[in-house]
Amino acid sequence: LLMVDEKGKNMKCLTFFLMLPETVKNRSKKSSKKGNSSSSSNSKLPPVCYEIITLKTKKKKKMAADIFPRKKPANTNTTAVQQYHQQNLNNNNTIPAPNWQGLYPTIRERNAVMFNNDLMADVHFVVGPPGGTQRLPGHKYVLAVGSSVFHAMFYGELAEDKDEIRIPDVEPAAFLAMLKYIYCDEIDLAADTVLATLYAAKKYIVPHLARACVNFLETSLSAKNACVLLSQSCLFEEPDLTQRCWEVIDAQAELALKSEGFCDIDFQTLESILRRETLNAKEIVVFEAALNWAEVECQRQELTATIENKRKVLGKALYLIRIPTMALDDFANGAAQSGILTLNETNDIFLWYTAAKKPELQFVSKPRKGLVPQRCHRFQSCAYRSNQWRYRGRCDSIQFAVDKRVFIAGFGLYGSSCGSAEYSAKIELKRQGVILGQNLSKYFSDGSSNTFPVWFEYPVQIEPDTFYTASVILDGNELSYFGQEGMTEVQCGKVTVQFQCSSDSTNGTGVQGGQIPELIFYA
């Protein structure tokens, strides 16, 4: 066998020398005889008959990694890979090509093909509560590599050889999200399934997925879901998430208490919120939120939502509401007429408001401390009298960013420099053009160079490392104070605030001077 090309050179084609059968037979007989000279015996052999067959060779095959580089081009093979992934998600995974392994250049991608795939599956999971189950395939080796719980389940000393395992306490979507991480090394989280995925990750000890779930929850944390996440963070023993939830609930207490999620919390979480000293809310809002929770709790316990049953489900938590600290109007028009209090309780609380000798109450009578607002002042001096600051409906605006999450409660504004005066102020807070908070209110200035607070209806959550736009349109005495020697960066407690000019400012306010001297916030 010789590698030659048509011109006699190597590496082009194959040339075979084929001996005819009769020639081979004669050659064999001659070689068996003994002779004095091998050369003379060979010379007497008949000539070898041969035939030359020329075959064309194929091109050198490329490896899979050569065909599919890491940065995949947009071609038909990529489309096929995407189709296989979609089949896996739908649990409709038939591999059409017998050599499907050749489509994937890395072991990670080939392993991902097995995700939710019946091919070579040696175990199946029946996931979900009765009536909502889904049967999912698995591969013991892959699962054991990704989770110590699965390793103990399949290869531990007490391993059971079951072909089907029932998991009624995990949602199918959450279990699939966990499997996708184990098989594909991909984290695919959604707002409506992240809590269930966190539960699955905790149950099967997949710490990196659990951490990703917590990070997802922290970034999506708001007043609307803070109470529910507080309840879940305590259940999952996630202290960092618990602390973040309390920060939101304290600063945006009224929004959190009025949210639908508040009614979904468990009794222990309800008690912890009602006990909270730093809850930044009016007590009538706390009272109404507790009644709303009691009504939903009656439905959960399949009770008629009567006054008696509401009080029953609230139990001793009712006395954690600081009813005696309400404004008298709030008590008289709200709590006193709700029916939730007994006649004696109502009379005693009225006496608490009016009598010199106050009766003993089961309710907590000490007001909540709430949160102490911090003020970030960005000017080193202010000017007055000789320099007028005209408003006439124009906008004063400044941009700012913080390095830690805070909650903007309002702005501190200058007043008149020539005696007392009343101002009308429309304040606004925006992020990338989207209004996050606004309010129209009036404030009275006494002629001093002090700043006067103007509040938003609810504190606005501010995320770190993002610029927000603070704006105000003032209407009042045009001869007012204005700031000078502005600073681009101010350290306020543990929070660093950066300022830059805003294109929305049409009345002269900038970093160096102008209006909006203070940001009022909770941290």
Automatic annotation (TrEMBL):
Region listing for Disordered, in residue ranges: 25-44
Feature: compositional bias, Low complexity: 34-44
InterPro entries assigned to the protein according to its UniProt record, in alphabetical order: BACK, BTB/POZ_dom, PHR, PHR_sf, SKP1/BTB/POZ_sf
Keyword Lyase appears in the UniProt entry: no
Pfam families assigned: BACK (PF07707), BTB (PF00651), PHR (PF08005)
UniProt keyword list: Cytoplasm
Compartments where located: Cytoplasm
An example Gene Ontology CC term for this record: cytosol
Ranges where the BTB domain occurs: 121-191
Gene3D superfamilies in alphabetical order: 1.25.40.420, PHR domain, Potassium Channel Kv1.1, Chain A
This protein's record includes keyword Cytoplasm: yes
GO BP term, example: cerebral cortex development
Protein name: BTBD3 protein
